[in-house]
Design goal:
Elements lengths: L1 E2 L2 E2 L3 E4 L6 H31 L6 H28 L5 E3 H34 L4 H4 L2 H27 L8 E2 L6 H5 L7 H34 L4 H29 L5 H29 L1 H12 L1 H6 L1
Parallel strand pairs: 3-5
Antiparallel strand pairs: 1-2, 3-4
């Protein structure tokens, strides 16, 4: 489309992770395996939580939200990535690029909010067990989930609008395997200093505030556990947090490395490798982490997979 003497970009070319044929085949195989594992694992957890009455508790309600989110999160980028690896034409329309950017940041920021909500749930369960049912009632759980999804949507909508309004009239080659804010800003034919600062400030505020809430929750949890004299009781209480803590480390470690540093050519190359962790690997590992460390989930999964008769013998 013509605009003055400038030619507006109507589609982008996604450069992907690598153009080496041998590495592409390995990347395709590993990515497909992790994606299928993510779909299967997260689907099973959602199904188990929905169908098992004894899992209709706040902790598992939030876990089901997280699993559903991870199911969608990986589906925003991975199918397109797999198709591009096997295709010579690695293009995406301008509209498709903006939609992908929106849902990627919508689901990613919602995950941060959900992880903070889950840490609050563990704080109440361990530090105020007698008031747990009163504080974490059905209404509170629904509000926490709605708040997480709403904040994630508004955060992403803000970045989506700012990015979509930028003029793209020069190169259309995106140095990534999906449409993200930072590589798109490098292609805009205007000064993007304000946009880059907003990405750092707003994304940093969301990431740091949720991380701070999680940190405060675990400071109180740790302080409470230190007062428990029985090591067995202390270990049992901490075991309910171990899965959540592991997921938090994976998520925030990659998020901080990607969005809280200046945009340079080297950092964009590193971002592509880091992005594989939180778009491909982490959504597949989350259900494994929760299933392996949670006896209730393991028992319910065995019951779902093997049936009641076999489950009783187990």
């Amino acid at each position: 489309m013509e605009g003055g003497n400038e030619t507006r970009v109507t589609e982008f070319v996604l450069l992907g992770v690598t153009d080496a044929p041998d590495l592409q085949l390995i990347l395709f195989s590993l990515t497909l395996a992790f994606y299928l594992l993510s779909l299967l694992g997260n689907s099973i957890i959602v199904t188990v939580v929905v169908t098992e009455p004894h899992l209709h508790t706040p902790m598992y309600y939030l876990l089901a939200n997280l699993s559903f989110l991870d199911f969608c999160y990986s589906s925003v980028t991975v199918p397109k990535m797999l198709a591009d690896i096997m295709s010579q034409k690695k293009t995406i329309s301008f509209g498709g690029c903006i939609v992908q950017l929106h849902f990627f940041h919508f689901l990613g920021s919602t995950e941060a909010m959900l992880l903070a909500s889950m840490s609050f749930d563990r704080y109440v369960a361990i530090c105020h067990p007698l008031r747990y049912v009163v504080i974490m009632n059905n209404a509170a759980c629904i509000l926490l989930a709605l708040f997480s999804w709403s904040i994630g949507f508004l955060y992403s909508l803000f970045h989506t609008i700012l990015t979509a309004r930028l003029p793209f009239c020069a190169s259309n080659r995106v140095s990534h395997f999906y449409c993200d804010i930072k590589p798109l800003l490098k292609l805009a034919c205007t000064d993007t200093y304000i946009n880059e600062r907003l990405v750092t400030v707003i994304t940093g505020s969301v990431a740091l505030s949720t991380f701070f809430m999680i940190l405060v929750s675990y400071v109180y949890i740790g302080s409470h556990l230190m007062k428990i004299k029985s090591s067995e009781s202390r270990q049992k209480a901490f075991s309910t947090c171990a899965s959540h803590l592991t997921v938090v480390v994976f998520y925030f470690g990659t998020a901080f490395c990607t969005y809280l540093r200046p945009t340079t050519k080297d950092s964009l190359d590193q971002d592509r490798m880091t992005a594989i962790l939180f778009t491909v690997v982490t959504p597949a590992l989350n259900p494994i982490i929760y299933a392996l460390r949670n006896k209730e989930v393991k028992r319910s999964m065995k019951k779902l997979i093997y049936g009641n008769a076999v489950w009783v013998s187990l």
